[in-house]
User: What shape does this take?
Amino acid sequence: MNLTIREIAEVCGGELKAVESGCVVDASQAKYDELVSRKVSGVVLDSRRVTPGAVFVATVGERVDGHRFIGDVFAKGAAFVITENSPETVERECGVRTDSWGSYCLVENSLQALRELAEYYRGKLTIPVVGITGSVGKTSTKEFIAGVLAQKYRVLKTEGNFNNEIGVPLTLLRITEETEAAVVEMGISDFGEMHRLSKMARPDICVITNIGQCHLENLKTRDGILQAKSEIFDFMQPDGQVCLFGGDDKLITVEKVERNGRSFVPHFFGLGETDREEVYADEIVSRGLWGSDTVLHLADGSKFSVKVPLPGKHMVVNAAAAACVGGLLGLQPQQIREGIEKVTSVSGRSNLIQTDWGTLIDDCYNANPVSMKAALDLLALADTERTAILGDMFELGDNSDAMHASVGEYAVDCEIDRILCVGENSVHMYNAAVARRAAAGASKEHIGIWYFENIEMLMTALAEQKEALIPNGSTVLIKASHGMHFEKILSSIAPCF
Assistant: This one.
């Protein structure tokens, strides 16, 4: 990382200090030039990830005050600390001795300092940055794009769920001199957030996967979601590119993007449903839970067959998005094919877990009506008994009850054999599913739908009625919003089956 201690302090607008023989001194003095001219190795928020030469940003979180670990990070070899509190305050409130400190920058707000640092660092970079947003499919699309670009470039991509106003700056600050391209996932829940993320990331290529029904408590409507997601264009590079999913009824209305006196004509990708799609997939043959075979058509008129290794049509769309971005960044068709075929699933997102008992579809990271229905489409591909364990979807606003009900009806329409609804909001999912199946003629004894108020009640039922709820050889989908903590269900039942 090509940043010095002095440079960081100047960007953060704080006071450059150091502790010498137990006393705080002004490190901006000339005699400390050698110290503050040192280059740092990286920037972290988690004290456990500190390595020699790193910068530790001390923040006050909901559960932990990072200032408590300042002594520990200096002992690990941290070069510098960004802090909201002075050594005297930290010693008084957290018990960290002043003489355990090294050089530091005292700022008013550590997280704001982190964002300013990331924005400054991004401005020094010359590599292409791909920014990805959308209501669903961001992470899978990120994996496809990163996989394709890796056939030509050394790629850095967002780790895990680091896609917010903390995760994005940390991702940008992980870019090193060896990095040749970066793929940055960008998630929001309110207006203005994407504007701030775009200001840091300044993407060369902006990708929007779709406009679904999520975060409606703040964004209210799909038009509101489109407006908020479109803030990704606010700080796009002057010679940037825009890639949009042509199968989305909101995105396809975008004729051009006007920003900062410039006009950008979007590139569309998809399944060949509109004549605006430059990159599209057709001749799709499902291989069930093990992916699809398809033919990809590129913007230059070339086409090739490819095996998309992850299941569902939405994964074929993600592959088309990767082909669109790959083409813009100079990859050849063979490189694009190889990148797509090497993609693997991510834990919590349509991740298939094969056991002696059956198959689990781990999709418990997050949920909204669009992603719920896509996951049910995926489960419907299984040629075994099918069980869906579905939980509450959060942040849906005034129409939450109806949206839960629509998922329950959809699960029945997908001919899912057993539907287990969990959580306070999911009672509407349950009631709608029962009504739908009863209307189709199912008797009360063979309705195949259960309701549980919470995870604990579900776990008890699984322990007592495992064969009735999940027969041997079944395929099971596990999906809910992250706040439902369905990963507990996964970690509990996976070893048992």
